[in-house]
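Journal club prep, shared notes

We agreed each person brings one worked example of a sequence with its structure written out as tokens. Mine is Lysophospholipid acyltransferase family protein. I'm keeping it raw so we can talk through how to read the token line rather than staring at a rendered picture. Sequence first:
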Amino acid sequence: MIYGAMKFSIGGTLKAVFRPWVEGLENIPAEGPAILASNHLSFSDSFFLPAVLDRKVTFIAKAEYFTTPGVKGKLTAAFFKGVGQLPVDRSGARGAGEAAIKSGIEVIERGELFGIYPEGTRSPDGRLYRGKPGGLARVALATGAPVIPVAMIDTEKVQPPGKVVPKLVRPGIRIGKPLDFSRYQGMDHDRFILRSVTDEVMYEIMKLSGQEYVDIYATAAKRQIAEAAKKRAEAEKAQ
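Then the structure, token by token:
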């Protein structure tokens, strides 16, 4: 009930204001479980994708969004619950990964759609980064659910990192054909299989999005960018 009301109000507003274009809606099954694996350009990705679908999509969100005290914290928690997001404690990298995998499997076992960003974090510069071989591949191989590649386009222009007020830019969404990895079902602890599955999905996302692919993790790229910015600042200060 809450999800339906949130989807109607938020989804309807997003579609009316930003008019997102969509290709490949026919690739989303009318019923049954599936994993939606998407590139990640903006905080708003988790809202634009559900807005254009008839079915509920469950994403993973930081536990802090659900536990912040005060009126603002309660409103934020209600909002994220209303749009179908699940809290995951990210205080420990391994624990967070296992919690996300467990949550994803539970969503799939209920016959629902599970949304995940294989890059693990937002792209720092609009390029597509190497997918992490944990959550996506393990959920797919543990459940046998099809993986549907999704490309979010220009959402970073709607809400650039660090900006609160969105810009009136028309974003796009391309949805690819389902990928079947059932031949590997039960092999979710083979790291070579996990890497192969993840890379295949990322290749399909790259084709859909048209992004330049960078074969390092986005988290490493963010560190490099931050270090370069720090060095520039120190050099300017020294002048």
